[in-house]
Rieske 2Fe-2S domain-containing protein
Amino acid sequence: MRITGTGHASMFIETAAGSILCDPWVNPAYFASWFPFPDNSQLDWDTLGQADYLYVSHLHRDHFDEENFTEHISKDTTVLLPEYPTAELESELRALGFHKFIKTVSEEIVELPGGVKVMIQALTSPTDGPIGDSSLWVEDADGTRMLNQNDARPTDMSVFLQHGKIHAHLLQFSGAIWFPMVYELPDSAKRAFGKQKRERGFDRSLRYIDDVKGDWVFPIAGPPCFLDDALYEFNDVFGDEGNIFPDQMSYVDWLEEQGRKQNIILLPGSVAEISADGSASVEHPVDDLRAWFDNKKQHLDEYKERMQPRLEAEKASWSHPEIDVLETLRERIEPLMESAEHIATGIGGPVRFDLTAPDSDQVVESIVFDFLERRIYPDDGAKVRYRFRTERRLIEHLLHIREVDWVNSLFLSCRFTAARIGQYNEYVYAFFKCLSEERLQYAEGWYAEQRPDDEDIVMNGWQVQRRCPHLKADLSVFGKIEEGVLTCQMHGWKWNLKSGKCMTSVGHDIRSGRAEAPAE
């Protein structure tokens, strides 16, 4: 099996059944804040676009690149489609002209012509990507197996392992979020939170690596880079231990410190050969891989200069002064707030957006989303649970394009600041991810179906429910207890075991207590 790196989570897989192109992202995403790192725009995308199969893991725009699909990817390729609860991914691909689909069933093997087998596991909670995330397992005709986990976070890896040894394991290691950079916190607090998040990301990836026990580990799906002057500080080139976007070389160095030596970095154009006997070889488009990463800032600065015209053109497209933001929000969003019984109750209060002039901190309009009264109105000075500050033209653009997912656009752009009272509230982000009736009704149904898990486990003298209240991760695998605090290492959520109270977010208490001593 041959795997050619094509940037970020993208790769070109060659098998006995033909080629599979995965997540081909090239163009800037999230209000032109994210760019692939390293630059992959010089690859021959017209040739790559002739792949026999196309796999798009999910709708995040660093995986779903509409412009690249339109200009370079053959519409006659066969799409390996994950089984998602909504039809959005298929609908968007069909709108671009794709017309051949293999509609997979989650965790069921499909055999392709030539004896190659593929399986896609679809994750479907409201917090998995934009209503869905997935991983691709491939077994070549000679028995070589790879797992492209990209940035999915499965709670159970056994579905991939029951079919035999994994020879190549590709997974995310770097940050893909806006926390803590955008929060209005002292720099020391941001650094501490960032360091914790960076370490937790490494630890989580290592847990997956240890579970899979693949012959070779490929760090992929990050980091992005930030080429706008306003965001450039987010690049990990300033020696900040709290930066959440470490690069592939930093991660591989850390893995080797943990005793994991079988690692392969893919630059755009790197070609790895993987065999069923556990052997591997790789050729890179540069002579000295470490020297290339040592010159990372120079690469970023040159990349930034190349992309400056593109950045300016993107920014020029955002303003839509003809849109009455308040009235348009009332028209489109208030009916959704009325339907959001579980989510609105979970938010439990008002959320405010302070909208500023372009490239300025000057607030020109403040709008409150009141999830108690289910109304949207101008700010009246009352306290709010969450506050976001962003440029008014970004909201104008979201309304202009009728964007249904502000998480997969505004929030991931990091072009905002945030403040909150109290704990993190996942329902806030769930709502702004579900600004369509289809998404909202699915999310509401998912939350309505959640029930306490009746199975308990004993860990370190504590008896706790087995499943994490957040996303049902198995706490016997992902749980860690220190000084009476349980941490689920899947997403870093914490609970006080004495009270059962969640220390991370409201509404997710756990069943816990001291374990009874065994009978004599």
